[in-house]
From TrEMBL:
<keyword id="KW-0697">Rotamase</keyword>
<dbReference type="GO" id="GO:0003755">
    <property type="term" value="F:peptidyl-prolyl cis-trans isomerase activity"/>
</dbReference>
<dbReference type="InterPro" id="IPR046357">
    <property type="entry name" value="PPIase_dom_sf"/>
</dbReference>
<feature type="domain" description="PpiC">
    <location>
        <begin position="198"/>
        <end position="288"/>
    </location>
</feature>
<dbReference type="InterPro" id="IPR027304">
    <property type="entry name" value="Trigger_fact/SurA_dom_sf"/>
</dbReference>
<dbReference type="Pfam" id="PF13624">
    <property type="entry name" value="SurA_N_3"/>
</dbReference>
<dbReference type="Pfam" id="PF13145">
    <property type="entry name" value="Rotamase_2"/>
</dbReference>
<dbReference type="InterPro" id="IPR000297">
    <property type="entry name" value="PPIase_PpiC"/>
</dbReference>
<keyword id="KW-0732">Signal</keyword>
<protein>
    <submittedName>
        <fullName>SurA domain-containing protein</fullName>
    </submittedName>
</protein>
<dbReference type="InterPro" id="IPR050280">
    <property type="entry name" value="OMP_Chaperone_SurA"/>
</dbReference>
<keyword id="KW-0413">Isomerase</keyword>
Length: 334
């Protein structure tokens, strides 16, 4: 587990994977990932390890700061040589991460201008909630911080800063984003198929080799000389044989045509006629039919609200950050 002080900022960089919010990467991981990056990137990369990559109203961002943010991404590339496409993607990711670091600084400066504060009690409450949600004791948290080479004060500072940025965004951006009930209803009416639960069937399967007498087995099943479950355990070579042939629920629309044709002739509790699957003979038991169901507007209202909210928020966030950058002195040296 990597402690994530950015739980309050899940929407501040809408086009980045959440792993890029991670801070407090262990020192040994940083050394490994930085070494990996230097080994994989062109030789010129060694010239920029410790240099300043940006200055925001006089506050510097170093290449070390940027590489720390990049560490989780580099861990995904560990163990393989980067090709040209990887290097191009790495450059794009570094640029996005640098943009977010600039945004972070601007938001903290804006929090100071607005006289926003987060007190110790709020920070400790957040830590307690974090521990409870992850079933961690205070001792567990201490050991995790130690593994990540982070002091509790550093962790508290990261949390405080993320909460401050969240408050700025709540005050300056989120309050401007509105999704009306009319928009939700219109979206629901236009996308009802997306909110319909597909018809499903619960099945049992007996899969027999070509030389087995499938018709004879069906007759024995019909006469109750042997149960479907017993026959599956004894004769079937297919999935779920030792579980009495049970293969669980399957969506009707995703079944092969010969399966649907076989099942269309029977009712729940009945056995199909044998049919061919890749040269083998299959017998199905229709255990149950779960009809399709349209989810009501009330069931999906919040889901739709979030779907409509996210792109609106992205636009407002981009406009707000661009306004802050226009008023600031930002020198990018990437």
């Amino acid at each position: 587990m990597i402690l994530n002080p950015y739980l309050y900022l899940q929407k501040t960089a809408v086009d980045l994977n959440s792993s890029f919010y991670w801070r407090g990467i262990p020192a040994q991981v940083l050394l490994v990932t930085c070494a990996l990056m230097l080994a994989c990137l062109p030789a010129r990369a060694t010239e920029i390890v410790d240099r300043i990559v940006a200055v925001v109203n006089g506050q510097v961002i170093t290449s070390y700061d940027l590489d720390r943010e990049l560490a989780p991404y580099l861990m995904q590339l560990s163990g393989r040589k980067l090709n040209a496409q990887d290097e191009q993607q790495l450059t794009v990711v570094r640029k996005k991460l640098l943009d977010r670091l600039v945004d972070d600084i601007l938001l903290l400066m804006e929090a100071k201008r607005l006289n926003l504060e987060v007190n110790d009690t709020e920070v400790e409450n957040h830590i307690r909630q974090f521990r409870q949600s992850n079933s961690m004791t205070e001792e567990d948290l201490g050991r995790q911080l130690q593994r990540e080479n982070m002091t509790r004060e550093e962790y508290k500072r990261n949390i405080r800063e993320s909460m401050l940025r969240h408050r700025v965004l709540s005050f300056m951006v989120r309050r401007k984003v509105l999704v009306t009930d009319e928009e939700i209803l219109r979206y629901y009416d236009e996308h009802k198929s997306d909110y319909t639960q597909a018809k499903e069937v619960e099945l049992g399967l007996i899969l027999l080799p070509p030389n087995e007498d499938s018709d004879g087995l069906v007759q024995r099943l019909g006469k109750a000389e042997i149960s479907f479950e017993e026959a599956a355990r004894k004769y079937s070579k297919g999935p779920g044989a030792q579980s009495g042939g049970s293969i669980g629920r399957l969506k009707w629309s995703e079944l092969a045509s010969q399966w649907r044709e076989a099942l269309a002739q029977i009712h729940p509790g009945e056995i199909s006629e044998p049919f061919s699957i890749d040269g083998n003979k299959a017998i199905l038991k229709l255990k149950a039919i779960i009809p399709g169901k349209e989810r009501s507007l009330d069931e999906v209202r919040e889901e739709i609200r979030q779907k409509l909210y996210d792109p609106k928020y992205a636009v407002q966030y981009a406009e707000y950050m661009q306004d802050l950058k226009t008023k600031a002195i930002v020198d990018i040296r990437f």
